[in-house]
Amino acid sequence: MTKANNKDKTENLQTPLQQITYLLRKYRLVEGFVHLQNESDQELAESSVQKQNLAELQSLLDQLHPADIAHILEALPLEDRLLVWSMVKAEYDGDVLLEASDAVRETLITEMGNNELVAATEYLDTNEIADLAPDLPQVVMDDVFQSLPIAERQQLRAAMSYPEDSVGALMDFDVITIREDVRLEVVLRYLRRLDELPDHTDQLFVVDRNEQLKGVLLINKILVSDPDMLVADVMTEEMITLHPDDVAQQAANAFERYDLVSASVIDAHGKVLGRVTVNVVIDFIREKAENEALNLAGLKEEEDLFAPVLKSVKNRWVWLAVNLVTAFIASRVIGVFEDSIEKLVALAALMPIIAGIGGNSGNQTITMIVRALALEQISSSSAWKLIAKEIGVSAVNGFIWGTVVGLFTYIIYGNPALGLVMTLAMILNLLLAALLGVLIPLTLRKLGRDPALGSSVMITAVTDSGGFFIFLSLATIFLL
Question: What is the DSSP letter of 221?
């Protein structure tokens, strides 16, 4: 009866992660009980209860997609993660490593032997192996090269030669090319001889004898057109083409703008090298968005939730140190006006309002600018217009909310001059936040850095120190 109830409870859990967590909890509970009885690990492994727990866990893992397994591994503490990883089917290893984040992938690879890593790549395409290559030991990559056919070996070298943020790094070599002087019936017979079409195949690439791209033949055109028609009569010459050295973000923008499923990649002579597909583009956009969010917070890299303390400290300390320096600067700004604060204690209570609103406004501006830079919407000629526009927005917001804050200050403290100072300080700090909210990411971009890198930390520091200085200076001039 108990076993049946446990099984029903497992099936009623909403997500695979909850099910895995529940089974792991049962496993650890029995493990703890056996250790309390001073029994050996061998007796633990051979106990019927633990065998059943592991069998249920194995059965559930065997039913999951590699992406789901990767998601589960991300959410598990290290000890449980390694237990689950040891039970994943060998043919899934490569796909799971691809789906996992860089930080988690590192912990998984550390637990694998060289032979296991080489075996994991056997189920991957060359472009997928290239994605894993930076994380694999050199001795493993040497063995992988030796195990590949010559053609795939050349493709892997080519894929690894492109920068990480280029179209070449996203390129898939699995393409179908046809000639323009054949009938559609011949194309259909050729396709039927294949075991399967490459993923996300919505079009075939029409090439000449030199493999130069002439056009594309949409799959739906093949199905609805007369089989006796020539490819040249059905194909379209209007197409989006990419080059391997193009910036990957530009390709992502093209996919979004034109609703593409796939696009050809050609060299300088028009020869087809490969293609880029929508699933790879989506992964690129997601990873870039995650990296931008981390950079805005001042994190150097993606972090494993369950990473060792020291490793997490190393990832976070740089911008915390920068923040500490800026905090000291802000404290010294306040220190300069100690006499003013002593004479009018209300200043101490009102300072955080000015700094907080300024920081919020600056972060809004930075978020808009970083997004616009990612979408290539800002040019050197439009930068000044953008600065003027953001200053205008902040001036209006500063006047509106500065007036509101000034009125509340007057109502609370009964001091009209203090209310006026609050209004002026709010306007000036929002103008400062707008100016630097545009200039910080643009300057980082001009220096060749990620425009999101630490921008949030920097704008907060500037609006804090600047807000304190503006407010206390005005208060000293008009009130004391």
Answer: H
